[in-house]
């Protein structure tokens, strides 16, 4: 059998997941009409799917009762805007952001459009070897009078993952987990609002979800309907027709994740498989260079640079010739995405050819 290894951004269904979908496909076909035109069915199918989704997620993540789950469309990018809109009382209320990578900076830039007082807790730092890292929280610029602190737990583009939750005082913590959702257990005592889009770890593009404490939502008026968390909560996410197929896929993936093991075992799995690649990078005598401090290297996105553009292109071509596809070149890095997919490969032969 020919094995093609896909290391791209998108979600790829593995063989057992495909079998799983196949099993359901028969039912799915039967139900297709209902699920696609559910607005005429008074949303019944949709609600059933959402309830199924919520129960599964609550069970896997052990989410305490005081949190609610909301679905929306528009991706994580929509939430970069909706979070300041809904969580700040006025434009003068302050909020804090970390600026530790491409995606946290995007969120910060959006917040500036809605808030005149965005405090930057920390920028990315570099050690004496030029490796990037997030400084210790005791070096952060923290303003206690904050509506919330926003950070991105796994900086996808740079391949840097936080090793701590930046909890301080009573400030609510908002976490973008788009690229490492469901890959490790979470400490709900420290988290107030977690969000992620589906397309990386839990399904296909189309649904984005939030797990949040409802009391964080301010009673703001004039929030456009599709951005309004209050409406979403009151209508159990059904503020318009939701993309039901992506939500259906989410429920299947949750089952798959649960059947594979606990979140503790997923965490171990993610560490081990990323470690396999980091080892090759570290033993490559400088052919591959990873620019993140070892302790903060991501378990999910392994990034590296090569000597120059020629070398990078040669490497990508070599990968393609060997059925390793979708390695991304983003900004200056090559990056390997290890979302919840398995990895069994001996790269050594391939890398020797460089
Ligand atoms: N946050 C993170 C951590 C991401 O990796 C991405 C996309 N790769 C986004 C946000 C933006 O997601 P979307 O395309 O759903 O808007």
UniProtKB/TrEMBL annotation:
EC number: 2.6.1.52
Gene Ontology cellular component terms for the protein in this record: cytoplasm
Any one GO biological process: L-serine biosynthetic process
Occurrences of domain Aminotransferase class V (ranges): 20-316
A GO molecular function held by the record: pyridoxal phosphate binding
Cofactor(s) needed for function: pyridoxal 5'-phosphate
Pathways involved: Amino-acid biosynthesis; L-serine biosynthesis; L-serine from 3-phospho-D-glycerate: step 2/3
InterPro entries reported for this sequence: Aminotrans_V_dom, Pser_aminoTfrase
Lineage: superkingdom: Eukaryota
UniProt cross-references to Pfam families, sorted A to Z: Aminotran_5
Keywords: Amino-acid biosynthesis, Aminotransferase, Pyridoxal phosphate, Serine biosynthesis, Transferase
HAMAP family linked: SerC_aminotrans_5
Family, similarity comment: Belongs to the class-V pyridoxal-phosphate-dependent aminotransferase family. SerC subfamily.
PANTHER family for the chain: PHOSPHOSERINE AMINOTRANSFERASE
Protein's name in the database: phosphoserine transaminase
Species, as recorded: Paramecium sonneborni
């Amino acid at each position: 059998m020919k094995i093609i290894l896909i290391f791209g951004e998108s979600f790829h269904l593995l063989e057992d997941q495909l079998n799983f979908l196949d099993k359901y496909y028969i039912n799915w076909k039967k139900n297709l009409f209902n699920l696609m035109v559910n607005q005429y069915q008074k949303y019944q199918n949709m609600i059933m799917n959402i309830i199924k989704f919520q129960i599964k997620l609550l069970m896997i993540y052990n989410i305490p009762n005081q949190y609610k789950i909301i679905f929306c469309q528009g991706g994580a990018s929509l939430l970069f805007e909706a979070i300041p809109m809904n969580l700040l009382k006025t434009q003068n209320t302050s909020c804090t952001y970390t600026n530790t990578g491409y995606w946290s900076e995007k969120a910060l830039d959006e917040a500036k459009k809605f808030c005149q007082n965005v405090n930057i807790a920390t920028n990315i730092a570099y050690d004496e070897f030029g490796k990037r890292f997030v400084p210790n929280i005791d070096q952060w610029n923290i303003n206690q009078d904050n509506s919330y602190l926003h950070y991105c737990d796994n900086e996808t583009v740079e391949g840097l993952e936080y090793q701590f939750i930046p909890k301080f005082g009573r400030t609510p913590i908002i976490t973008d987990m788009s690229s490492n959702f469901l890959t490790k257990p979470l400490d709900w005592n420290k988290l107030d609002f977690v969000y992620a889009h589906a397309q990386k770890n839990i399904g296909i593009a189309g649904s984005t979800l939030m797990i949040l404490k409802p009391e964080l939502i301010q009673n703001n008026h004039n929030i456009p309907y599709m951005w309004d968390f209050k409406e979403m909560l009151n209508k159990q996410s059904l503020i318009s027709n939701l993309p039901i197929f992506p939500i259906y896929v989410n429920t299947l993936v949750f089952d798959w994740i649960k059947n594979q093991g606990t979140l503790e075992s997923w965490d171990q799995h993610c560490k081990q498989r990323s470690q396999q690649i980091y080892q090759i990078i570290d033993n490559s005598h400088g052919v591959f260079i990873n620019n993140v401090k070892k302790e903060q290297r991501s378990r999910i996105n392994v990034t590296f640079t090569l000597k120059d553009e020629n070398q990078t292109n040669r490497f990508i071509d070599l990968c393609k010739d060997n059925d390793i596809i979708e390695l991304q070149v983003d900004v200056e890095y090559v990056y390997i995405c290890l979302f919840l997919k398995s990895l069994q490969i001996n790269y050594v032969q391939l890398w020797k050819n460089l």
